[in-house]
Amino acid sequence: MAIISDLQEDEAPRQPQQAARAEEALAAALEQSGGAALFLQAAINVARQRSDFFRDPSAVSKVTAMASAARAQVEAEEREAKRKAQEAERAAKAAAAPAPAPAPAPTPAKSSEEKAESSVEKQDKMEVDKEESNVRQPNAGNGLDLEKYSWTQQLPEVNITVPVPQGTKSRSVVCEIKKDRLKVGLKGQPPIIDGELHKPVKVDDCFWSIEDGKSLSILLTKHNQMEWWRSVIKGDPEVDTQKVEPESSKLSDLDPETRQTVEKMMFDQRQKQMGLPTSDEMQKQEMLKKFMSEHPEMDFSGAKIA
């Protein structure tokens, strides 16, 4: 497991004027470079030419982790903005809603048999509702927004965002990533996350970092990168994996064989939802039809094409 901690955390911080000038210089360079991609490419070239950073075999993984953490932060900010907009919309609807209707007249008392039957039905309904309530619609990142943390996923990885008090430093964080377990929290306080992972991860390819001193970003690299996770921690609310969708940009990044497998999996998933045959079943149908057309002398009266 690698840790991306605050740069020079234990050294004296820059003066505000120096930090402001540095940020203005970077902003000017970004504007003049013609785009973020060219700006980052120029920064990488400078780091390669004037430092030993890329002589480190883990340099690429570190840069990838930084980019993933930045993307996770952007997604968290977008989700927060969307949540606030939804809250404002609900408040506006509640303010415009008509006054509640008068309470209905009391219904006659039920017999003891009706009460017993109703109680059993109610209990069965509660058990079904409890199972269904644990499965939720995915958020924009194919994960869930929970009370203590939020998470998103693509086939190769899971990104977790945990809010922490403003000004939190990496030395105050407890983040233990094991193959099948995750523990996250602040020193001297009860864990925020502590439990068995939904699926195993590649510990050496997992990272965490503090973002703006107010959130902890964790990147988990899945051991099996061809399946969707239903949850991060076993027992937590689960996402409906039938409704997750990979980003098209992510599909284009995959090698041809992997992309073909993923697209086939997505096609079969949609076919099952509509009650239609999967790609394997369709292939079997075509093979049977072809065989029947090539052997008309054979009796297929009892044969069925599934």
From TrEMBL:
Alphabetically ordered keywords of this record: Cytoplasm
Species for this entry: Eragrostis curvula (weeping love grass)
Function: Small heat shock protein required for the establishment of auxin gradients and for patterning of the apical domain of the embryo. Involved in the specification of the cotyledon primordia. Also required for normal inflorescence and floral meristem function, normal developmental patterning and thermotolerance. Acts as a molecular chaperone.
GO molecular function, one term: unfolded protein binding
Swiss-Prot/TrEMBL GO biological process terms: protein folding
Cited InterPro entries: CS_dom, HSP20-like_chaperone, NudC_fam
Predominant cellular place of this UniProt entry's protein: cytoplasm
SUPFAM superfamilies, per database record: HSP20-like chaperones (SSF49764)
Region (Disordered): 1-20, 65-144, 239-258
Residue ranges of every copy of the CS domain listed in the record: 144-233
Protein name (record): CS domain-containing protein
Gene Ontology annotations for the cellular component aspect, listed alphabetically: cytoplasm
Biased composition, class Basic and acidic residues, residue ranges: 74-92, 111-134
Subcellular compartments: Cytoplasmic granule
Superkingdom to which the source organism belongs: Eukaryota
